[in-house]
Amino acid sequence: MGSSLYIGDLTRMLRGLSRAEFEAYALGRYAAEPEVAVAIAELADGITRLVDLGKWTQNRLRGIDWAERPAA
Questions:
Q1: What pLDDT is attached to residue 37?
Q2: Residue 67 lies in a domain
Q3: For residues 22 and 29, what is the distance between their CA atoms, to the nearest angstrom?
Q4: Which of 10, 19, 26, 46 is buried most, with the most CB atoms less than 10 Å from its CB?
Q5: Is residue 72 a part of any domain in this protein?
Q6: 51, 70 in Cβ contact below 8 A?
Q7: What pTM does this model have?
Q8: How many CB atoms lie within 10 A of CB 9?
Q9: For residue 54, which of 41, 38, 72 has the smallest C-alpha distance?
């Protein structure tokens, strides 16, 4: 399978699926390769956390104070 398929799947998660929903989707799609499904879900989860941290940092620089810093 090409990496472009994996990138497309990452994009799906970043559009609003929860980690559990995405992992269930990925396990269905990559049934023959469950380790790939879990790795994709972990990567997408990490990207989501980095995006949240980036937004928090950007708001702090603008003087907007969030209640707490998101976990990275």
A1: 77
A2: no
A3: 10
A4: 26
A5: no
A6: no
A7: 0.52
A8: 21
A9: 72
pLDDT of the residue at 66: 63
Give pLDDT tens digits for 20-71: 777 777 778 777 888 877 787 788 778 778 878 888 888 888 887 666 666 6
Domain holding 25, by residue range, is: 3-61
Residue 22 lies in a domain: yes
Kindly list the distances between the CA atom of residue 68 and the CA atoms of 35, 55, 72, in Å, as whole numbers in the listed order.
33, 12, 12
* 28: its two tokens: 């269905």
Number of domains in the chain: 1
Phi and psi of 43, rounded to 5°?
A: -65, -45
Assess if residue 51 is contained within a domain: yes
Tokens of 69: 């810093």
